[in-house]
Amino acid sequence: MTTAAPGKRERTKRANREAILAAARDVFAEIGYGASSVRDIVRGTDLASGTFYNYFPDKESVLRAVVDEIVVGARARVRAARAAATTPEAFVADGFRAYFAFLAEDPRTARLVSRNAGTIRTLFDEPALGAGIAELREDLDAAIASGLLPAHDTELMAATMVGAAVEVGLATLARSPIDVEGSAAFVTSVFVGAFEHMRR
């Protein structure tokens, strides 16, 4: 009996945290981070108002957790797309396409990111975002080692490509209709052109 209680307690804690994050996603998507309050988030759950603070100290920490979830999901798809690439064009295009498609396929995520673009830009110190840059740099280094890409400063290139992904992703979500393929083709032409220039 004593071993079952912690398991149930952990499940309850996990469910409560997930309920808060789901409610926060809805609130941030519908009214925006700046206009929302902790009370708005709690209203979207079945939890008592004080329960919120058992999981998060404030509204910003919830936003960071929500953005972290989004970024971790996007990173996995983007990295898989790059790993399968056999040409410089595919390395660039497939990675960007995977990212833009990830943002666009879930209307709630698209609304959340679009409505809170300015606030999200301030979160570049987040570990999940930093890890995405580090993973891209590793992939660029591997592509250089294999001869797929020309030698270049992968630290600067990774920062540039992630910056482009964030800004072009936001611009893509702001358009109607959302054109994932068009945006992927645009950034591909920019970066593949840069790689071709480096190779020459």
Characterization of this structure:
The protein is an all-alpha fold. It folds into two domains: 1-57, Arc Repressor Mutant, subunit A (Orthogonal Bundle); 59-199, Tetracycline Repressor, domain 2 (Orthogonal Bundle). Helices cover 74% and strands 0% of the residues. The protein contains nine helices and no strands. The radius of gyration is 20 Å and the shape is elongated. The termini are far apart. The mean pLDDT is 92.
Fold-level CATH name of the largest domain: Tetracycline Repressor, domain 2
Low-confidence stretches: none
Architecture per CATH nomenclature, i.e. the level-2 architecture of the largest domain? Orthogonal Bundle
Report the C-alpha radius of gyration, rounded. 20 Å
- Please tally the β strands and state the result: 0
Compact summary:
This protein has 200 residues and is mainly α.
Structure characteristics:
200 residues, mainly alpha, Arc Repressor Mutant, subunit A, Tetracycline Repressor, domain 2, 2 domains, 0% strand, elongated
Give the arrangement of secondary structure elements.
Layout: H1 4-30, H2 38-43, H3 59-83, H4 88-105, H5 107-115, H6 117-121, H7 127-145, H8 154-173, H9 180-199
Helix pairs in contact: 1-3, 1-5, 3-4, 3-7, 4-8, 4-9, 7-8, 8-9
